[in-house]
Write a structure and sequence with these properties.
Helix content is 28%, strand content 23%. It has 19 helices and 25 strands. The strands form five sheets. The protein has a nine-stranded mixed sheet, sandwiched between helices. A seven-stranded mixed sheet has the order 7-6-5-3-4-8-9, with helices on both faces. The chain is an alpha/beta fold.
Length: 557
């Protein structure tokens, strides 16, 4: 199929037949599955490296041989098409191999949230109908203590960082390396609507909910992300090494393990997240592109020895998602020569919906305004139909003021919650996926999320946008992490309370003086200023690294 694509900046010319509707007939069209997406990666980028920490490195050619060999090994112990295979691990090369081997052989990859307590790990594995488990040695004791409840598991594939034998009472068990066998294995031609992955939402309310994605979903998402990261101010280039600091159990690590290998980037895996190791990898592997949540960036920028790495972090390009990018944090990153931009998505959307690349309006702005819009929620990614609507699904004005809910359609959204038709109907009411995120649209097309519906503070019948308030607080020099929640109030319904991680440089007086100045110049409204400031030793986090506002509300008196 012949196709041409106008080259914009340094966007690679992608094979456009991946984006056509497949009829799988005599005309030679291919299904949009992972096998067809990566058919050229090993051939075109055979010597590009995949690096695991300071322990192992291999070429793409070797990686895809191992992916085939591991799939052959899984098949040899009885893994069949449609079986769900769980992975319990940090961000390792073994996990990366499973990202490919399991779905490409027709099984379903379940990326287990290792930050869940044991009872939720059991719940999600049982609910997902896992049959096989790939697990690294340090997580085995937790499973062994509760092995009697895992009677639905057919087999355990175990390993350690040394690729040696692992002693365990889990049975039957198989050594991972022993299963990497015949690299001549051929992956089947799967229908693009075959389920590829399942994972669970963070469960901020009630039990975690399972979401599934097909091969087609993942292929379309990969192509959209690949397109989006090649625009200013990120402008990812062929020689930009990737270090993705989004856990591989969390929403496909934002799809970047697939994007990186499609584009032929050097891909570096950090294992367990440790700031010292991360900075060493940035230096040694010449990292130029990463993605992470704000709390990880905060940890990196707070490293006591960061100045020793100044010359190595300069030029680092970082996409921030999972939570709003605070302006103060972005400014601190900028002072080290690190470019940060915002992005947005959710578990149900695979996750990409928006990214704060420059559109035509931003390209002509001065640098200050460009910076201001680069830390917003951004603009919709390619193939995303995104609206901000009122309760009747009417679009709100693009006036930077009127608040509505984000609803979306895109080719990679989950069809619904696994085995939960009622929640699925609620998610897709009116034919649009309801995100539960409240936002405004600017006249130039950029979107700014101001709150989650469940987190919004409604005071005197009006919304106080907590994310805007948190952003203002973040700009106080020397302040730690901040989060704003609502506290019941007899007169106003709710009033905002700010939780602030203790710092030697910040006290209550300084915080209120800072907010008063922002109110005077119109950055915030005076009645938004919190009635209380509560200083805490550390910020409670959800399993995905966000501020846990549910736990913060428990601290209110």
């Amino acid at each position: 199929m012949a196709a041409t694509m106008e080259k914009h900046s340094n966007i690679p010319v992608l094979i456009l037949f991946f984006m056509s509707e497949s009829t799988k007939g005599e005309n030679g069209d291919l299904d949009l599955n992972l096998k067809n997406l990566f058919v050229n990666s090993a051939r075109n980028f055979s010597n590009t490296e995949i690096v695991y920490r300071d322990k192992r490195r291999m070429t793409y050619s070797k990686f895809f041989q191992r992916v085939k060999g591991f799939a052959a090994g899984l098949e040899s112990i009885g893994v069949k098409r449609g079986d769900t295979v769980a992975v319990i691990d940090w961000d390792t090369d073994k996990f990366m191999e499973a990202y490919y081997s399991v779905p490409m052989m027709g099984a379903v990859l379940h990326t287990v949230n290792i930050r869940y307590p044991p009872e939720l790990i059991y719940y999600t594995m049982n609910h997902a109908e896992d049959k096989w488990v790939i697990v690294r040695d340090e997580f085995i004791p937790i499973l062994e203590r509760n092995k009697q409840v895992f009677d639905f598991i057919k087999g355990w594939i175990v390993y350690n960082d040394e690729n040696g034998s692992v002693n365990t009472s889990l049975s039957p068990n198989y050594n991972y390396e022993d299963l990497v066998k015949d690299s001549s294995y051929e992956f089947p031609d799967l229908d693009e609507n075959t389920t590829a992955t399942v994972f669970y939402t963070s469960g901020t309310t009630g039990l975690p909910k399972g979401v599934t994605f097909s091969h087609r979903n993942l292929v379309m998402h990969t192509l959209a992300v690949s397109n989006g990261i090649h625009f200013d101010p990120i402008s990812v280039k062929r020689d930009d090494s990737f270090l993705i600091l989004v856990p591989m159990f969390h929403v496909h690590s934002w799809g970047l393990p697939y994007v990186g290998l499609l584009l032929g980037q050097k891909y570096v895996l950090p294992g367990r997240y440790e700031v010292g190791m991360i900075l060493d990898l940035v230096k040694k592997e010449k990292i130029r592109f990463s993605a992470m949540v704000p709390s990880i960036l905060y940890m990196i920028l707070s490293a006591p020895n960061l100045d020793e790495y100044k010359e190595y972090v300069r030029g680092w390009k970082v996409i921030i998602g999972g939570a709003a990018l605070p302006r103060g944090l972005a400014l601190k990153a900028k002072s080290y020569g690190i470019t940060t931009i915002g992005a947005y998505g959710m578990s149900e959307t695979a996750p990409l919906l928006t990214v704060a690349i420059y559109n035509d309006a931003a390209q002509t702005m001065d640098q200050e305004n460009q910076f201001n819009f680069s830390i917003t929620t951004g603009i919709p990614a390619a193939l995303v139909n995104l609206r901000v609507v009122d309760e009747k699904l009417n679009d709100v004005p693009k006036d930077s003021k009127t608040i509505g809910e984000i609803v979306v359609r895109a080719p990679w959204l989950t069809k619904g919650y696994f085995k939960d038709p009622d929640k699925t109907a609620e998610l897709w009411r009116g034919g649009w996926l309801h995100t539960g995120d409240l936002a405004v649209i600017h006249p130039n097309g950029y979107i700014s999320i101001v709150d989650r519906e469940k987190d919004a503070v409604k005071s005197g019948g009006e919304f106080i946008p907590t994310l805007v308030l948190e952003n203002a607080l973040s700009e106080l020099q020397g302040i730690g992490e901040v989060a704003v929640v609502g506290k019941p109030h007899e007169k106003w319904g709710e009033r905002p309370v700010a939780f602030i991680v203790k710092s030697n440089n910040v006290n209550e007086t300084l915080v209120y003086e800072h907010l008063e100045k922002y109110a005077e110049v119109g950055r915030i409204q005076k009645w938004w200023i919190p009635d209380e400031l509560i200083f805490i030793d550390s910020m409670p986090k959800t399993s995905t690294g966000k501020s846990d506002k549910k736990e913060l509300r428990k601290l209110l008196k």
